């Protein structure tokens, strides 16, 4: 080789080696030594109790417990645009769970998304939020999980196509989207607001459902809380683009998040019902803090939005308006099947809100409304909670579609939905029974002292 070409080759080699070293540093983490499972007596009871509440706020059970299965034994299929990922067994079983994980290994998983062996974990496990969690809270979560019943349940194989089935590819995702920050308080705000921000942005990962995602499955930072998708549901916008007719405030948010119902907004259903089921069992001060912070996220609505909401409520009072003339089929189904509960001012459990107050009807797509009409709203065992029958067996897709289009025209000021019939068909296919509120499904029973029921 001549002088200059040797120089070029040298530079190329250095660049390649440097690149490989950087890639290696990002991709590779050492395994953290396995420990002897510490056993439940190794943990302080107060710490375990705190960990229980934190686990409820983090919805660990919603993803790590299969309905009807053993607590935290994993195996839940989580659908993503790239394929299906199965949640892990996070009971302290030594062979198939996290029994041999040290607290350090657990904290590394929560903060940086690595398993004990040093492999990357898929961000379906919402560590892009959990990275925010403090050392003390991770310690309490660890104590709670390590004192659960160990369950022997081997991991299920993910169903992902190439290249998404290559765990090292997650390194690139992390480089682009994972921010390693524990929460930094904002001194301009109250302690309560800061507590709420810490929980919402971190452990409670509200944005994981309520923020739209980009093509690589990461939340779009520029559209935080602008509305997202989860399973067969739309998680409504909660920022200033909220479509709620009556604007949300801290008190309404508190009632909705704690009890799953507020007279100006109606009930929480589907995946949100599971979130509420968990929040109803944690200290009310934490739910209050979340509500205070979220009230700031939704901000004072623009005069335009306020007018729209008021106009929708006004328009809904008239049952002989243009909507009814344009869609006689929908109008007559509503009058016979729905109005007696939704317009008569009947008390709970059967009285539904005036539908002009329902975000489901003002929502950008009709999925949630189709789910509600087909499946209804189920009562929670032993509680005086809202009940609505499902209409899946008594209405055809064409009837449900006519009804949905009518509700949209009569109870919102939004343009008509397109592809209502297709949405109804999809909803019928995906239909599963869901609860208004699931009973606290944790290993440790909820503290009855903390459940203030109305
Ligand atoms: C939205 C669903 C979801 C939620 C909520 C969730 N996880 Fe997970 N978690 C997963 C999935 C899916 C995996 C498997 C990821 C993989 O295989 O790469 C996982 C993996 C883990 C792991 C790694 C286990 C192992 O053996 O590698 C730990 C630890 C964990 N989760 C703890 C928690 C804790 C603690 C909470 C609550 C604070 C929680 N998760 C909440 C979906 C979730
Ligand atoms: C697992 C996904 C998921 C998570 C996590 C989640 N939500 Fe939701 N949320 C939803 C869905 C889906 C709906 C719509 C439910 C319906 O139609 O009843 C919803 C509805 C809501 C509504 C009602 C909005 C309206 O205008 O009617 C509020 C408020 C809300 N969520 C707040 C929160 C907060 C605060 C958190 C975090 C503590 C949170 N959500 C976490 C999925 C989620
Ligand atoms: C037996 C009484 C009853 C009947 C009949 C009934 N509903 Fe309901 N509905 C309820 C109750 C109770 C709720 C829960 C409280 C709430 O959210 O309004 C509810 C909730 C809803 C919601 C959610 C409102 C929100 O955003 O929280 C919609 C939409 C709805 N019903 C539509 C209908 C339609 C359409 C029909 C007719 C096909 C119907 N309901 C028939 C009692 C009833």
TrEMBL record:
Official protein name in the record: Alcohol dehydrogenase
Keywords: Cell membrane, Heme, Iron, Membrane, Metal-binding, Repeat, Signal
Compartment(s) where it occurs, according to its Swiss-Prot or TrEMBL record: Cell membrane
Cited Gene3D superfamilies: Cytochrome c-like domain (1.10.760.10)
Amino-acid positions noted as binding heme c 3 in the UniProt annotation, renumbered to this chain: 338, 341-342
Polar residues composition-biased segments: 316-325
Chain positions recorded as heme c 2 binding sites: 206, 209-210
One GO cellular component term: plasma membrane
Molecular-function GO terms, alphabetical: electron transfer activity; heme binding; iron ion binding; oxidoreductase activity, acting on CH-OH group of donors
Cofactor needs: heme c
Sequence segments annotated as region (Disordered): 299-325, 434-454
Ranges for domain Cytochrome c: 46-149, 191-298, 325-411
Bound cofactor: record note: Binds 3 heme c groups covalently per subunit.
Record: residues binding heme c 1: 60, 63-64
Major site of localization recorded for this protein: membrane
């Amino acid at each position: 080789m001549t002088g200059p070409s040797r120089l070029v080759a040298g530079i190329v080699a250095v660049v390649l080696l440097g690149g490989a070293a950087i890639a290696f540093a990002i991709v590779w983490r050492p395994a953290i030594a396995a420990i002897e499972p510490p056993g439940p007596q190794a943990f302080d009871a107060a710490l375990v109790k705190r960990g229980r509440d934190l686990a409820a706020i983090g919805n660990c059970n919603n993803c790590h417990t299969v309905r009807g299965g053993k607590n935290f034994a994993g195996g839940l299929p989580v659908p993503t645009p790239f394929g299906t990922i199965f949640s892990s067994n996070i009971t302290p079983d030594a062979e198939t769970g996290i029994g041999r994980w040290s607290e350090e290994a657990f904290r590394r998983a929560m903060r940086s998304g690595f398993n004990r062996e040093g492999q990357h974990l898929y961000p379906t496990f919402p560590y892009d939020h959990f990275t925010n969690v403090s050392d003390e809270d991770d310690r309490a979560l660890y104590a709670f999980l390590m004192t659960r019943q160990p369950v022997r349940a081997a991991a299920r194989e993910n169903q992902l196509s190439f290249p998404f089935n290559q765990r090292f590819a997650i390194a690139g995702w992390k480089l682009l989207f994972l921010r390693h920050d524990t929460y930094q308080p904002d001194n301009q705000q109250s302690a309560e607001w800061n507590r709420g921000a810490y929980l919402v942005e971190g452990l409670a990962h509200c944005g994981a459902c309520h923020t739209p995602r980009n093509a690589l499955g990461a939340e779009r930072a520029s559209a935080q809380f602008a509305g997202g998708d989860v399973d067969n549901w739309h998680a409504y916008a909660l920022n200033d683009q909220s479509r709620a007719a009556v604007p949300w405030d801290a008190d309404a948010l508190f009632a909705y998040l704690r009890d799953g119902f507020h007279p100006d907004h109606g009930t929480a259903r589907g995946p949100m019902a599971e979130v509420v089921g968990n929040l109803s069992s944690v200290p009310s001060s934490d739910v209050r803090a979340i509500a205070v912070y979220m009230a700031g996220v939704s901000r004072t609505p623009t005069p335009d939005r306020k007018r729209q909401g008021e106009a929708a409520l006004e328009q809904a009072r008239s049952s002989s308006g243009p909507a009814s003339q344009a869609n006689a089929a929908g109008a007559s189904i509503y009058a016979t099947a729905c109005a007696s509960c939704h317009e008569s001012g009947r008390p709970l459990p059967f009285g539904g809100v005036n539908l002009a107050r329902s975000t489901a009807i003002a929502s950008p797509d009709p999925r949630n409304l189709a789910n509600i009409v087909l499946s209804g709203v189920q009562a929670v065992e032993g509680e005086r909670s809202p009940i609505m029958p499902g209409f899946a067996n008594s209405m055809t897709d064409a009837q449900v579609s006519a009804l949905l289009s009518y509700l949209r025209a009569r109870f919102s000021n939004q343009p008509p939905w397109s592809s209502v019939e297709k949405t109804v068909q999809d909803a019928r296919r995906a239909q599963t029974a869901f609860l208004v509120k699931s009973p606290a499904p944790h290993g440790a029973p909820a503290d009855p002292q903390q459940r203030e029921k109305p």
